[in-house]
Amino acid sequence: MEPVQNEKQMNDKVENALKRLNCILPLQASQDKCSPRVKELHQQMLRSVVTRGHIMSKAEMAQWVDDVPAAINVLSQYDMVVFAENGEPVGAYPFTMTAREHTIHVNGQQVYAMCALDALAIGPMFGETTRITSKCRVTEDPIVIEMSSETILNWVEVQDIYVGIAWEMADAGSCCADSLCMEMIFLRDGTVAQQWLAENLGGREIFALQDAVEFASRFFLPLMS
């Protein structure tokens, strides 16, 4: 098991992780650089996934901005939205339209999260009840986490789960969705988490589930304000 940490150590760990992730994927800073209309478009694209189960199409983007190609260029350049070669949106952190191991049931919709941390963010971002279905990356044991906003509803069943981040997988040459996100994972318990961590102490980090929820909330919530 991970050594017991006091509250200050846990707060510092989350704070340092936030700074690290914001250096790799500065979503809030990028959103703040956008024009008000593009920022609103981005927020509406995120809401679309929760309300309809899929991201807004390129044609639908025209309801929010006059120059869709320019908006696509900004959102793509800042790695805020992932686009297919034909210009259609296929993902916007924390969501992806591509099936991944993290399935989220929210608002009657079934959607996919880019990574484990993203999966934990969806409830807090939208104040919704969510059911996360995933698996331990090491053992492939099933993982089910039920949340209401930031509150974990089935805490007794999931309190030993960890989130692992392989920071060394961040690649400045590719979008985060195809690099670091692929290695932000759920781990069944503290023993498995420590084993996974020991494989690369310098490039990996693990978070107890409640700390991971705080991390996810603090990273993603500002995007909707």
Could you explain how this protein is built, in words?
The protein has 225 residues and is α+β, with helices and mostly antiparallel strands. It has helices at 7-24, 27-33, 36-52, 58-61, 68-77, 116-126, 155-158, 190-198, 209-220; strands at residues 82-83, 89-92, 95-96, 103-106, 109-113, 129-135, 142-148, 151-152, 162-166, 184-187, 204-208. The chain has an eight-stranded antiparallel beta sheet with strand order 1-2-3-5-4-6-7-8. Helix 1 packs across helix 9 (209-220) and helix 6 crosses helix 9 (209-220). The longest helix has 18 residues, at 7-24.
The top-level CATH class of the largest domain is: Alpha Beta
Q: Return the domain count.
A: 2
Structure classification: alpha+beta
Radius of gyration: 17 Å
* Major sheet: arrangement of strands: 1-2-3-5-4-6-7-8
Q: Could you tell me the mean pLDDT? A: 94
Keywords:
alpha+beta; Beta-Lactamase; 225 residues; 11 strands; single chain; 9 helices; Arc Repressor Mutant, subunit A; 2 domains; 8-stranded antiparallel beta sheet
Tell me the layout of helices and strands.
Blueprint: H1 7-24, H2 27-33, H3 36-52, H4 58-61, H5 68-77, E1 82-83, E2 89-92, E3 95-96, E4 103-106, E5 109-113, H6 116-126, E6 129-135, E7 142-148, E8 151-152, H7 155-158, E9 162-166, E10 184-187, H8 190-198, E11 204-208, H9 209-220
Antiparallel strand pairs: 1-2, 2-3, 3-5, 4-5, 4-6, 6-7, 7-8, 9-10, 9-11
Helix pairs in contact: 1-9, 6-9
Short description:
The chain has nine helices and eleven strands.
